[in-house]
Amino acid sequence: MGEHRAGFVNIVGNPNVGKSTLMNSLVGERISIITAKAQTTRHRIMGIVNTADMQIVYSDTPGVLKPNYKLQESMLNFSQSALQDADVLLYVTDVVETPTKNESFLGKVNSQSAPVLLVINKVDLLKGQQELERLVAQWQTILPEAEIIPVSAQYKFNLDYLLKRIEALLPVSPPFFEKDALTDKPARFFVTEIIREKILLTYDKEIPYACEVEVEQFKEDDRQIHIMAVIYVERDSQKGIVIGKGGAALKKVGMLARKDIEAFFQKKIFLEMYVKVEKDWRNKDSKLKSFGYQPE
Predict the structure, then answer these.
(1) Long-range contacts, 2-5 (Cβ 8 Å, 24+)
(2) Span 134-163, average pLDDT
(3) pLDDT tens for residues 229-249?
(4) Rg for the chain (alpha carbons), in Å?
(5) Helix ranges (DSSP H) in 41-128
(6) Strand order in the sheet with 147-150
(7) What is the spatial distance between Cα 269 and Cα 25, in angstroms, rounded to a whole number?
(8) Is the dihedral of CA 217, 218, 219, 223 positive or negative?
């Protein structure tokens, strides 16, 4: 047995570049929710990988964006804090976005002290080697200290190499969490994430962003889990849309969510869902605190 290594590997980058897909591939469990709509990861999520002589603690952050309202301000704070406590920083970009997008954040990435692995995701979309070389050269001028690693998270291309580099950069340290921990988030957190993902897939326009999910009851026995969840919306008109004609839309969300929750916990799930109006919750500190976006 060599020395034990452990560290925090924080994943940052703009929305929609595939940060959550990458983290899930590295952790090997569906921990972060993945959907094509921007802004699905609102909290920092820890995924933990343990081997006998190593513990990697991943956190995936919300995509960096210019905040429009209080909720987004607290999301941006999660991304900023990820720069401060990282042992290894994964800056994720892809072959589609403009490299110079968000220069102020890139400046911060450049000035922090942890080693940076610049992951260029979705290289499967490139036409050939020359395109990749051009992109790499461009990034070398933007983040000169970073080590550049092209990957495809979706097709698991080059992820083993990325993992080797992460392992090599981890500091020698005892583990931070119990070795059987997969994540630092409680079970109900995954229930809310799964329901939110189904809301994103079911409704259009601003509805998903006006919704927040709270699990009010989580009762588990050997065979089954009884879950009661509330979907909060900001206005009465949204409540009608979320419930749908004759309750059809809410039923659909419930059915899709229940399947995934059963798969996650490997147990039979009884899921009850209600919709409540909490006027303008995205701008209320008390609500943002109770939903976990701001410290108590």
Answers:
(1) 2/53, 3/53, 3/172, 4/53, 4/54, 4/55, 4/172, 4/173, 4/174, 4/175, 5/53, 5/54, 5/55, 5/167, 5/170, 5/171, 5/172, 5/173
(2) 92
(3) 999 999 899 999 999 999 999
(4) 20
(5) 70-84, 103-111
(6) 45-51, 54-60, 5-12, 88-94, 116-121, 147-150
(7) 26
(8) positive
pLDDT in tens, 1-17: 578 999 888 888 887 88
| pLDDT tens, residue by residue, 106-148 | 887 888 888 999 999 999 999 888 999 999 999 999 999 999 9
Distance CA(276)–CA(279), nearest Å, equals 10
Strand stretches in the chain, DSSP E: 5-12, 45-51, 54-60, 88-94, 116-121, 147-150, 212-220, 224-233, 268-277
Asked whether 109 and 64 are in contact (CB, 8 A), the reply is no
**Phi, psi (deg, nearest 5) at residue 223:** -100, -30
Is the entire prediction scored with pTM above 0.85? no
Taking each helix axis from N to C end, the angle separating 103-111 and 70-84, rounded to the nearest 10 degrees, works out to 30
Q: Which residue has the higher pLDDT, 228 or 21?
A: 228
